[in-house]
Design goal:
By secondary structure, this protein is of the alpha/beta class. The chain is about 35% helix and about 20% strand. The strands form four sheets. It has a seven-stranded mixed beta sheet, sandwiched between helices. A four-stranded mixed beta sheet has the order 1-2-3-15. Strands 13-14-17-16 form a four-stranded antiparallel beta sheet. The longest helix has 19 residues. This is Aminotransferase class III-fold pyridoxal phosphate-dependent enzyme.
């Protein structure tokens, strides 16, 4: 195994089974999962309807056929995504990951505009591939390689109108910056961006890899900002654990490629069958509203009980807890200690943030209120032990 991927915990955890919102580890313990495989396992584990949909596709004998052939599940999923995108006459292209989806979006907007420069947001994270990293506004993730195309990073003080010109291909932004520690963009900031971009014909690309499929309490995170994106990038939760990503956008943008482009595994039969079931389950079970309600419950209880050194932030069931020392500086050591203590008590949470001082909470949307309250108790106890 390459050394690049960091493993959580001083004694890494081996997962062997899952059920509901719980994971079973090789150490024989059961853990309440508040991380969801980095916001992926939207329906939890061993969901009967998801298992049935994938098993039926496997029984057909076709688990892969590439994008050179049609298969009905992929077309039906594309129709479902386009219909829910809010983009008129939308086109869809499937990939295998969020990083690949970002690359596809960047390729399309650069061809559409005949321009190279991309505008991105400070604190953003868009993936691990070269183009996605170029647009990532966190130096710790970027390494030493020079960006393959010009990127200008924006903060709340920078005048966007001074940056928009014929050399700009698009602006890409997350409604909630997940890797930064679940930091929401200020309400209306995307609207302000689009008000400047639209008259110049510059597309707004919204990265919904972590915020999509109901996680924020709306179907898409952009819906909190009163905008209509030109392009949406998606992945993670759509597959419910199966590998899928993609891009949906105005047809004139996605059709701007002058050359053929494929994804060998993008939108494959198993992933498409899973995606269709996830979309249906989210709607049938009312999981969008459920995520909003439980997110408010978690944020309120944690904010009330964690004390002055912890700040709760985020939207819906995409939450972060940022730890600071007595002087108000980011406290990565405290965050790491609480992360370990949570595992010791049977709760799995993420660890991240731009300064490494945030716990990340992204449980399955099927989380129950009882489980939310149980997780709250475990987290509060962990913080009390480490403070």
């Amino acid at each position: 195994m390459a050394h690049w991927p960091p493993l959580f915990y001083s004694a890494p955890l081996e997962i062997v089974a899952g059920e509901g919102r719980e994971l079973m580890a090789a150490d024989g313990r059961r853990y309440l999962d508040f991380y969801g495989g980095v916001a992926v396992n939207l329906l939890g584990y061993a969901d009967p309807e998801l298992d049935k949909a994938v098993s039926e596709q496997m029984a057909s004998g076709v688990v892969h056929c590439s994008t050179f052939y049609l298969h009905r599940k992929q077309v039906e999923l594309a129709e479902a995504v386009a219909a829910r995108s809010g983009i008129p006459d939308a086109a869809v292209f499937f990939t295998t990951s969020g990083s690949e989806a970002v690359e596809a979006a960047l390729l399309a907007v650069r061809e559409f505009r005949g321009a190279e420069r991309v505008l991105a947001v400070e604190g953003s994270y868009h993936g691990r591939t070269l183009g996605a990293l170029a647009c990532t506004g966190q130096p710790a993730w970027q390494g030493r390689v020079r960006n393959p195309f010009p990127v200008t990073f924006l903060d709340e003080r920078r005048d966007l109108s001074a940056e928009v010109g014929d050399d700009v291909a698009a602006l890409i932004a997350e409604p909630v910056q997940g890797v930064a520690g679940a930091v929401p963009l200020a309400r209306g900031r995307l609207r302000g961006y689009q008000d400047v971009l639209a008259p110049a014909g510059v597309p707004l690309v919204v990265d919904e890899v972590q915020t999509g499929w109901g996680r924020t309490g709306r179907w898409w995170g952009y819906e909190w900002h009163d905008v209509r994106p030109d392009v949406i990038v998606f992945a993670k939760g759509l597959g419910g654990g199966f590998t899928i990503g993609g891009v949906v956008g105005r047809r004139e943008i996605l059709d701007a490629l002058p050359m053929p482009s494929i994804s060998t595994f993008g939108g494959g039969p198993l992933a498409a069958a899973a995606g269709l079931r996830v979309v249906q389950a989210v709607e049938e079970r009312g999981l969008v509203a459920h995520a909003g309600r439980l997110g408010r419950l978690l944020a309120h209880e944690l904010g009330r009980r964690l004390g002055d050194r912890a700040r709760v932030q985020g939207q819906g069931l995409l939450l972060g807890i940022a730890f600071h020392d007595a002087a108000g500086e980011p406290d990565a050591a405290l965050a790491a200690a609480v992360h370990e203590e949570c595992r010791h008590r049977g709760l799995l949470v993420g660890l991240g943030g731009t300064a490494g001082n945030c716990l990340r909470l992204m449980p399955p949307l099927t989380l129950t209120e009882e489980e939310a309250r149980c997780g709250t108790e475990l987290l509060v106890a962990a913080v009390a032990t480490c403070s």
